[in-house]
Inverse folding.
């Protein structure tokens, strides 16, 4: 399993973090390669990708090895502390006498809210050392199947999937909340108007996403349009979030976003029409018949 932190438009994996820490401690790519049992070119690629994602120069390379830059030293201290806390929690759990409690958590790949989720699970792990915790990234449809079966005890999902989980089989709570807004590119004709009006979108296209990427999103945004009297000409399904992003930049339609769902679209270069008091965010979902006491414990750690 490779947990992630989200950093702007990119993801930082625990594999990258751990590789960085090992290289920093040895000060040498060759020694780090021997420790990690992976090739030196692979390590170099991992570090280069990490520098690209963070926008930081982490090492100064020299014939004798690699020395941390000032930015690298700061990052090393922060990540070393974070991983030490995780390791400490794991060791306490392993030494606990009561091993009959466990919780299996699923969350979407490259998840927008992963840093919030990881912080709450870290707090849970520190407070409930007798509970074994397993986490797994999966595609949205895999999460649905997993929570419906016996693979997961609890999952995290976008709030636009609420109707799917609003049944007798599941309980759910809003883990976090953020406003939903209608988003158009600044090249869109409506964004140049002195006074924006929803009627300007009457001959416009509503951009949606495929079912495998965002289950029920099509129905969700159609209902939003109906609820807020937002007209549209047609609905087009973008191949992925990146193609939706390009369509917006070119002014070819509009899209509903929440910073909790799609943080990449929170960048400058877009015009937003704020839907009054309409909230999106992240759901925490569990089965009503779940007997595992760790689920109720996890709920206690949630901050609103």
């Amino acid at each position: 399993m490779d947990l992630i932190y989200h950093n702007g438009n990119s993801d930082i994996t625990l594999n990258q973090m751990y590789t960085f820490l090992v290289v920093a401690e040895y000060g040498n790519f060759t020694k780090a390669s021997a420790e990690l049992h992976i090739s030196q070119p692979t390590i170099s690629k991992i570090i280069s990708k990490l520098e690209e994602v963070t926008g930081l120069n982490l090492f100064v390379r020299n014939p004798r090895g690699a020395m941390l830059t000032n930015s690298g030293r700061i990052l090393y201290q922060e990540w070393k502390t974070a991983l030490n806390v995780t390791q400490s929690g794991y060791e306490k759990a392993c030494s606990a006498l009561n091993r009959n409690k466990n919780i299996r958590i699923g969350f979407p790949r490259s998840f927008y809210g992963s840093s919030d989720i990881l912080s709450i699970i870290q707090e849970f792990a520190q407070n409930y050392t007798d509970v074994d915790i397993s986490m797994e990234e999966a595609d949205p449809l895999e999460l649905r199947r997993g929570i419906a079966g016996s693979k997961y005890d609890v999952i995290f999902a976008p709030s636009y999937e609420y109707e799917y989980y609003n049944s007798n089989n599941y309980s759910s709570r809003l883990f976090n909340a953020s406003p939903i807004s209608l988003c158009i590119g600044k090249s869109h004709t409506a964004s140049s108007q002195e006074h924006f009006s929803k009627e300007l979108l009457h001959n416009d296209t509503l951009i949606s996403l495929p079912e495998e990427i965002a289950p029920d999103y099509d129905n969700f945004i159609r209902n939003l349009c109906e609820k807020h009297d937002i007209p549209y000409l047609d609905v087009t399904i973008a191949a992925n979030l990146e193609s939706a992003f390009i369509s917006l930049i070119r002014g070819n339609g509009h899209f509903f976003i929440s910073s909790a769902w799609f943080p990449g679209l929170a960048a400058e270069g877009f015009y937003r029409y704020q839907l009054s008091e309409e909230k999106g965010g992240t759901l925490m979902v569990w089965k009503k018949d779940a007997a595992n006491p760790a689920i109720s414990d996890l709920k206690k750690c949630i901050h609103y």
User: Anything to note?
Assistant: The CA atoms of residues 134 and 293 lie 15 Å apart. The first helix runs from residue 14 to 26.
